[in-house]
Amino acid sequence: MPVSILIPTPLRRYVGGAKSVQVTAQTVEGAMAALARESPDLRQQLFDGAGKVRGFVNLYLGDSNVRDLAPTLDAVAVKDGDVLTIVPAIAGGAPEAALSRDEILRYSRHLIMPEVTLEGQKRLKGAKVLCIGAGGLGSPLTLYLAAAGVGRLGLVDFDTVDLTNIQRQILYSTSDVGRPKLEAAKERLTQLNPDIEIVPHGLHLASWNAMDLFQGYDIVADGTDNFPTRYLVNDACVLLGKPNVYASIFRFEGQVSVFDAKRGPCYRCLFPEPPPAGLAPSCAEGGVLGVLPGIVGSFQALEVLKLILGTGEPLVGRLVMFDALDFKFRELPVRKNPGCAVCGRAPTITAPVDYEAFCQVRGLEPAAGDKTVPTITVEDLHGRLQAGESFNLLDVREPHEYQIVRIPGAAQFPLSQLPVRLHELDSARTYTLHCHRDTRSLQAYQLMRRAGFGRLQVLAGGVDAWAERIDRSLPRY
Ligand SMILES: [Zn+2]
Predict the structure, then answer these.
(1) Class for domain 375-469, per CATH?
(2) In the CATH hierarchy, which top-level class contains the domain 127-359?
(3) Per the residue annotation, which of 283, 340, 343, 359 is the catalytic one?
(4) Predicted TM-score (pTM) of this structure
């Protein structure tokens, strides 16, 4: 007999988000067995080791509790069109936690929402969320999750607060400059909500520690700024079956998605390989409008809360792109890739790999024939200039950066114009390349090497090293 089984919200994640599942069976026991066959993940939630429905699971056939109809499930027959409802005594993956009188007042604007209620708020309190990165995205993310009452908030970061962070990282104040980020973040978040637990993980996330760390959390929110960590977070989440709430930002653009390989694609399904190093510059190189991480990190917080509450439509299988300059949203469907190296049918990645190597396969490796890129230090350059030696210094930064600070005598050759202006240079001469720090001068080096320039060197640390160590009157950025 065809029977519908209604799946409660907290368990929908085990059946691909479905509200109900159709099975064919003669008895309630048969219907539940059919459900367990279709959803092995759900089997662990509902059945004990002996294959019996666990005691805390109540089943209703129509309006009647099945336990009231007969002593055993196989004795309850079902007929065509019957509706079986699963009513779990516990609410989903996150154990509920009781709320104090003060907490009930604190969260009152949640409690009166039918999408949250007291039950949802208890679920938030029982939830454990790990935020990777306590920077631009991590700021609104952790502030809103703490304010919303997520019971345990793990933070991974190893940086100290820098003055350049304050323009967008609203978790920190000017007085925090120089402090470890996690120390300042824990203090701020505890002030915001003393009823939750803030767990600082002051470590470099790496292949050897990610799995152990993620194990202790229900949801991972990835707000990092580099590709090796993105792939590591993705793979560890897929391997552990945890949802990865993803966001990224650059200048005026943001992306958000929920990668949950149990019911949709993962980050690798969308991006099987990282871009060549240098093609996707970091915020430190490319800049970011201060409010953008505020907007995108808030979307990330929204998706985390929805996953915990089991409400709404999560961004699974959808990538939302936000262009702040044009104020335009675009939503692109993302499909699961059956050939995905980590979540596909025949995965080749079964444990975290070496992500540094994976993400640096192309781009900055020396050109053919080169073993290493020749460099010169700012001290060496300075000393030799003082001694009267002349250098052909090329500044490959963009013109608006040249206005902030420059090395005296450097000619402007922005990397973006270099390919069409190479003819202005003489391949027989020696050039010393520099940018803000190193990244773009290395790209310029590669480009010129390929064009036949044989006498090149890169100024290690760029204009920033010059301002830091040679002329301290110059501004740094
Ligand atoms: Zn995948």
Answers:
(1) alpha beta
(2) alpha beta
(3) 283
(4) 0.69
